[in-house]
Design brief:
Blueprint (H helix, E strand, L loop, with lengths): L1 H19 L4 H21 L22 H31 L18 H6 L13
C-alpha cells in the first residue's frame, strides 16, 4: 500500500510540475491544483492513519489517531482553494488585457518582438532617432 501511495504522490507531483511549466495559463492552474493534491495526499499519508481509532487521546483509550495530519490537510485545502481562485482571476485579467492566454503575453503567431525606437536606443542598439515637431 505504501508503494501505491508513494507512486500516486510522485505521479501527481510530476504532472503538476509538467503543467506548471506549460506556456498557457489554464494548464498552469491545473498544474497548481495537481501539486496541491500531491501535497495533501503526502500530508495525509504521513500521519500513519489507524482505522477505527478516536482522534483524541483519553484515559480509557489505548490507541488513537494523530489529528495533526488531518488538520494540516484541511488547512492546505482551504489555502489551495484561495490560491487557485487568485490564479484564475489573475489569468483572466491577463487574458482580457493582452488578448492571449500565453504566460509571456505574446501570441503564438508573432515570433518577433519589435521595440519602439525609444527603448531600442536605451538598449544601446543605435542612436535615438531625432524627432522634429511641426514646421
Amino acid at each position: 500500500m505504501e508503494f501505491l501511495v508513494a507512486t500516486a504522490v510522485g505521479v501527481l507531483s510530476a504532472a503538476g510540475i509538467y503543467l506548471v511549466l506549460r506556456g498557457r495559463t489554464f494548464p498552469v492552474v491545473l498544474g497548481l491544483a495537481f501539486m496541491s493534491y500531491a501535497i495533501n495526499v503526502f500530508l495525509f499519508a504521513s500521519g500513519r492513519l489507524v482505522i477505527n481509532q478516536p482522534p483524541i487521546w483519553g484515559k480509557d483509550v489505548a490507541a488513537y489517531t494523530d489529528p495533526l495530519p488531518q488538520a494540516l490537510v484541511l488547512t492546505a485545502i482551504v489555502i489551495a482553494f484561495g490560491m487557485t481562485a487568485l490564479v484564475v482571476v489573475l489569468a483572466l485579467r491577463a487574458y482580457l488585457e493582452t488578448g492571449t492566454d500565453q504566460v509571456d503575453g505574446l501570441s503564438e503567431t508573432s515570433g518577433v518582438v519589435t521595440l519602439p525606437p525609444e527603448e531600442t536606443s536605451a538598449l544601446g542598439r543605435g542612436p535615438a532617432p531625432s524627432r522634429e515637431v511641426g514646421p
